[in-house]
Design goal:
Elements lengths: L4 E2 H10 L3 H13 L12 E2 L13 E3 L2 E3 L7 E10 L3 H12 L4 E4 L21 E4 L2 E4 L3 H10 L6 E2 L9 E2 L1 H15 L2 E3 L3 E8 L2 E9 L2 E12 L5 H5 L4 E3 L2 E4 L2 E4 L6 H6 L7 E2 L6 E3 L5 E2 L4 H23 L8 E5 L4 E2 L3 E3 L7 H5 L7 E5 L9 E4 L11 E3 L11 H4 L2 H21 L8 H10 L6
Parallel strand pairs: 5-6, 5-14, 6-11, 14-26
Antiparallel strand pairs: 1-2, 3-4, 7-8, 9-10, 12-13, 13-14, 15-23, 16-20, 16-22, 17-19, 17-21, 18-19, 24-25
Helix pairs in contact: 1-2, 3-5, 3-11, 11-12
Bound molecules: flavin-adenine dinucleotide.
Flavin-adenine dinucleotide (FAD) binds next to helix 3, strand 12, strand 22 and helix 11.
């Protein structure tokens, strides 16, 4: 039987166990601010909740092997379309699917949307435009274009988005805010703080994913899953073919008070630039390339995160100790390590750099990629790049879609991820409505849905 105990008694027990200090000091801090106070003698009673035996399935160490027992998982949610990963691709996929009328869930391991764009502090959206008939044409339209348009109506949210410009730079907090707004407005069900750890399979068809969160290990079931994790975590877990590429892994940081720096003096001291301009004029974002290594190795990720942070710290200290740089400060290092490429789907079609530079339209074109600096023509992206060779029930979008090594430098850019995400989300919704597999959606119907949603297909 549970015996109710008072908060005071709980604190006493925790203190005796050596656990009380942090809890007690937090309690004091809470009570010293504006939190409602409890009248003396009316301390609410707390119950210690025993963990039910049936909800615990710890791994067991048996003969030096760690064995995870089989168990039934709670179903957190059931939906038409499940988008895993809330970066540019996942955001666009979720909004597109929901706007097309599908019940849509987006699940993201962190607490915000935007992936590398906002969490990685990669703030310049390259390749929004291409050169068509000698004119700069915006190719990143549809959901991505809608987001950029909305940012342009907020003071201090976007730079270089006026007509005739290209490669806009966005403020990360404004971008997160607007993504939240658009996701909510489209009616997408959101699960943040949810790390996809596995897939749910029914035969050879992906039927959902398994998530770890503070609520435990739970499944979300779906008719179609869009893998927008950037690293292809879902298609890899489902057994799809993929290749893995190594690429430079960096860590972006931002500087504050750059408008109070004396650039002449800093140049004389050997600092060539303070980074890329941002909508907030006192801040700059600073890219960092880093070594080419394995983005799927937790040892490497841990090592790099700390090494990069140390080197950034030392660099900024040097800057602050140089003539003209004393007012500049380290505003933040990116909450997300800068992974550029890891897994790429083995898809029905691998788009090549050569094809991207011979702008021919594919029968299944679902997006048109832009050019860095709008220097060349747009390049059609076929639906086949998003569809696994064999695996069903799943589409991939963003930087883990299918492309050859050289095209990675174009197809992993934010604008390209927004448009492949849009295409995958629309296709997923259409597959649900047509009661068919994603690979079997009728391409003319998909192209019509995309253009109705504002996408540019050339
Ligand atoms: C250092 C660096 C500099 C760059 N510079 C530029 C630039 O200047 N301009 C430009 O346009 N592009 C640039 N890029 C590329 C661009 O930022 C990314 O390629 C793009 O953001 C990829 O979008 P995505 O949605 O495919 O993936 P991501 O942005 O990586 O988003 C993936 C999302 O999935 C989530 N996720 C991952 N795994 C799981 C899981 N298992 N469960 C739940 N959620 C998961 C992640 O948290 C993340 O939110 C740069 C990239 C880096 C790393």
């Amino acid at each position: 039987m549970n015996t109710p105990i008072s908060r005071r008694e709980l604190l006493r027990i925790l203190s005796a166990a050596g656990l009380g200090t942090a809890f007690a000091s937090r309690l004091v801090a809470d009570e010293s601010d504006s939190a409602p106070r409890v009248a003396a003698g009316k301390v609410p009673e707390l119950k210690l909740i025993p963990v039910a035996g049936k909800s615990r399935f710890p791994a067991r160490l048996v003969d030096g092997k760690v064995i995870q027992p089989e168990r039934t998982l709670p179903i957190l949610h059931e939906t038409d379309v499940l988008v895993v990963g809330g970066g540019p691709a996942g955001f666009a996929a979720a909004v597109a699917a929901a706007r097309a009328g599908a019940k849509t869930v987006i699940a993201e391991r962190f607490g915000y949307f935007g992936g590398q764009w906002t969490g990685g502090l990669v703030l310049v959206v390259i390749s929004t435009h291409a050169k068509e008939n000698g004119q700069k044409v915006q190719v990143c339209r549809g959901i991505g274009g809608d987001l950029l348009d909305r940012l342009s109506k907020i003071n201090g949210a976007i730079l270089n988005y006026e007509p005739g410009k290209h490669n806009p730079t966005t403020d990360p907090e404004a971008t997160k805010f607007m993504m939240d707004e658009m996701i909510a407005e489209a009616g997408v069900k959101v699960f943040l703080h949810s790390w996809a750890a596995d897939v749910v399979m029914e035969g050879d068809v992906v039927r959902g994913a398994v998530f770890e969160s503070k609520s435990g290990r739970q499944a979300i079931l779906a008719k179609v899953v869009v893998d927008a994790t950037g690293d292809g975590d879902i298609f890899a877990a489902a057994g799809a073919e993929f290749e893995q590429r190594l690429h430079a892994i960096g860590l972006v940081h931002r500087l504050g008070n750059v408008d109070r720096a004396d650039m002449e003096k800093l140049k004389a001291a050997g600092f060539r630039s303070l980074g890329g301009a941002e909508p907030i004029t006192s801040a700059r974002w600073v890219n960092l390339r880093g070594p080419s290594t394995d983005a799927l190795d937790v040892n490497e990720l841990s090592r790099l995160e700390m090494e990069h942070r140390r080197s950034i710290w030392n660099h900024v200290q040097k800057l602050r100790n140089s003539p003209g740089g004393d007012k500049v400060f380290l505003l933040q290092t990116a909450p997300q390590l800068g992974v550029r490429t890891s897994r790429l789907l083995g898809a029905v079609k691998q788009l090549t750099y050569a094809e991207s530079r011979e702008p021919k339209k594919f029968p299944d074109t679902v997006a048109v990629g832009g050019a860095q600096g709008a220097q060349h023509a747009g390049w059609p992206i076929p639906y086949g790049c998003l569809v696994p060779k064999k695996l069903d029930g799943l589409l991939a979008a963003g930087r883990c879609a299918s492309m050859d090594e050289k095209l990675c430098e174009d197809m992993r850019l934010i604008a390209a991820c927004l448009i492949t995400g849009h295409a995958a989300g629309a296709a997923a919704a259409l597959a649900v409505q047509s009661k068919c597999l994603p690979r079997d959606v009728e391409i003319p119907k998909l192209q019509k849905l995309l253009t109705d949603q504002g996408a540019y297909l050339g």
